[in-house]
Amino acid sequence: MSRVDVVMPQMGESIAEGTLAKWLKKVGDEVKRDEPIFEISTDKVDAEIPAPSGGVLAEIKVPEGQTVPIQTVVAVIETEQGVGVSATGIGATPTPASVAAAPPAPTPKPQAPPPPAAVPVGAAAPPAAKPQPPSPDSETADERLRRRSTPLVRKIAADQGVDISTIPGTGHAGRVTKKDILGYIEAGAPAAGGAAEAAGAAPTPRPQAPTPGGAGVWEAAPWPGDRVEAMSRIRQLTSEHMVFSRRTSAHVTTFYEVDMTRVARLRAGNKKGYEERGVKLTYLGFIVKAVADQLRRHPVLNAAVQRTAVIYRGQVNIGIAVALDWGLIVPVIRGADELSLFGIAKAMADLADRARTKRLKPDEVQNGTFTITNPGVFGSFAGTPIINQPQVAILGVGAVERRPRVMVLEDGSEVVVPRTMTMLSISYDHRIVDGADADRFMSDLKQELEDFPENGV
Question: Which residue numbers are catalytic?
Answer without folding.
Answer: 430, 434
